[in-house]
Amino acid sequence: MYDVVALGELLIDFTPAGLSSNQCFLFEQNPGGAPANVLSVLSKFNKATGFIGKLGNDQFGHFLKGVLDDINVSTEGIVFDDEVRTTLAFVHLDENGDRKFSFYRNPGADMMLKEEEINLEMIKNSKVFHFGSLSMTHEPARSATLKALKYAKEKDLLVSYDPNYRPLLWKSIEEAKQQIKEGLRYADILKVSEEELELITGIDDMKKATEFLYKGYDIPFITVTLGDKGSYFRKADDEGYVSPYKVKAIDTTGAGDGFLGALLYQILESGKVIKELEISELENMLRFSNATGALITMKRGAIPAIPTLEEVYDFIKTQGNH
Ligand code: ATP
Question: In what order do the strands lie in the sheet with 73-81?
Fold first, then answer.
């Protein structure tokens, strides 16, 4: 049995690592991919997790599988492909220190997962199914994602969705919006940033935009991550805001994934369906999620920065409730 199974991209993020002795740029090979980050958090919090996706049958692909094996995320849903290479992304820092990405994904293995390659048994044996929109940028992974979603709904899983909009990976913004909205039709839990919320709804007001999504797409729980401003949620006509923890952030990579992994952990632990959760319970859950996200920003990288459950509880205890 699994608690959470996720489908999506697993790739290498080459992050800047200074200069060599002969002044050449150095890059550090880091695992990347939002769905796998979410699973890694849940796995570190002792939940049973499994990943479904495609990797190239190359050094990078086998390195990534090893990373998930090491953190106890089941890799039985990974398909290795001889014909395509593992997706790579290089991160560059511009003159202001902002991150710029170059993706090597033309195609990349993650886009090439086929419907018939999905391990449906894993989905059938899980409580939650999680996905993003990167697996919907191109065929055949788009159809594979939709097949997995339909199956998850048929089997009554709770479906969690983090669109994670990456403009460079879409042919056009119109196509991105259309596909991201298609995903909304399946979501029970939606996690978006403020920018994504405005992109999807065209509404520049968080309350109105989340109300529009809950009414238009019948999404039971929507949460908006606000970086160092904390987080917001809407459950039907109820809403709430949870203030952030003050930390010295050095790298925000994976904070959103950590936030969502922590939220799914809390929902699973509660043993309740979303409808049954009181507003005060949801506020406590978001507080725990804010703490997990904040702790992740205090260390470099996504997976290496994930705290243990004890570290999150200690942090909340020392910082106090907000
Ligand atoms: P991504 O798009 O990279 O997946 P995101 O935009 O969804 O991430 P963030 O809003 O950056 O995610 O972070 C998620 C949560 O982590 C926030 O809602 C907040 O609770 C916490 N967090 C992030 N950055 C900070 C920060 N600088 N200080 C305190 N808390 C932070």
Answer: 73-81, 49-56, 2-7, 126-132, 158-162, 189-193, 221-225, 231-235, 238-242
